[in-house]
Amino acid sequence: MKCKKAGYYINLFLDKDLSEKKKINLKIHLEACDSCRREFDTLKKTHELLNDIKYSSESKFLSAISSALLPNEKAKSFSFYRKKIAFISAVSVFSLITAFFTVKIIESRDNSLMKGLHYLEKTQNEDGSWNSNIFQKSIPVTSITLLSMMENKTKFDKEKYDKITSKATAYLLSSVQSNGIIIGDSRKRATIHDQAFGILTLSRIYSLNKAEEIKFKLELAVKAAEANQKEKGGWTYYFHSSAEDVIVSANMIKALIKAKESGIHCNNEVINKGLGFIKTYSADGNYNSYIVNVLAKNTLVSTENKTKTFDFNRHLSKITNAIVGKESEKPCFYYQDLLIYDYYLDYVKKNAMQQKKNICRFLLLKQDKEGSWTNCSGKNYATAIATYILAKYGGS
Fold first, then answer.
1. Structurally, how many domains does the chain consist of?
2. Is the pTM of this model over 0.70?
3. Where does the pLDDT of residue 65 fall: very low under 50, low under 70, confident under 90, or very high at 90 and above?
């Protein structure tokens, strides 16, 4: 067990929220690690301090304060004020400790973000793009990384931020062909997967910068996407293929909605037809499709739920557990699921504070020493998504 994970387990243990199996693993680690054992002892004493703060009739400290505050009151009334003072003292100590650990958590998140962003900064190509582990100059990786950079704008000085984002924007715009299809430099075959991510990011850029070139290229890309929707309402991974892909379709719907919100004309019938496709989609039992199915079929596109009582928190807890629970221990964790999860939260307009905190804690544990995150699509892709989500959810 790594020390970072042990620190996470220590907090769960003190909150009495750690399973017996994990308690054993934590105990083994603490016996071998002096640093974590000292941290455990310190936190344990803090918890005990908070639990032990109570009223004592013999307390000279409380008596002195009571006398100073109420010199003319009768002794028999002191007990009431002593209790109040004890309560205020306990609350004050608790508030100070809570503030201390909140600052530490924020520092940890900010440090992780800076390491991740620095890693992405180093791996940007000269033309502004980023690579995946399979393709050079990948449109999806470049798009998500650019979204992450925009979400983390305050972490950069202006000159560096402008240089990184302007190069990436120029690359995306140059990738939009005259027929509207977005093609990465090294791809031999265009994909709608690329198209969706390109539209999503260009829509965000256009919402901030109403340049005519961006509008022109974005309109071309949207028309190409709409023209390639299949009869059932979904989209395929490759252009001109037949098997509709639910994840590609979810990404495309999100992209078209964002394009429309930015001021680009989008066909509502296309969006609604796409939503209908996802709503009727049935998961085939594997982890990746399960997330999409739960989000899409149950709430993402279910207009009926807008008028019914629905336990969003319980539903979100199940989804969060599916993402950060035992399934995440698989060799290839699908960071893509975090984007679908984010689409869902945008749709239902729910803050989901606790679930977002759980996602952030999970991501902090998954970061490599060099500052990156890793999955089967490559470090750049995983790191871009992780830094994007941490920036969005970190303030929750």
1. 2
2. no
3. very low
Q: Considering the domain boundaries, does residue 11 fall inside one?
A: no
Start-to-end CA span in the chain (Å): 28
Residue 395 main-chain phi, psi, to 5 deg: -85, 0
* Residue among 314, 342, 336, 380 nearest 137 (CA): 380
What is the amino acid identity at position 239? F
Q: Which residue range forms the structural domain that includes residue 319?
A: 286-396
**Do 273 and 335 sit in the same domain of this protein?**
no
Q: What is the mean pLDDT of residues 85-93?
A: 55
Report the alpha-carbon distance of residue 111 to residue 117 in Å, rounded. Answer: 10
For residue 30, being part of any structural domain is answered with: no
Ramachandran area for residue 233 (φ above 0: left; ψ -120 to 50: alpha; else beta): left
With 0-12 CB in 10 A as exposed, 13-18 as middle and 19+ as buried, what is 31? exposed
Whether residue 292 sits in one domain with residue 268: no
Backbone angles phi, psi at 135, to 5 degrees: -110, 140
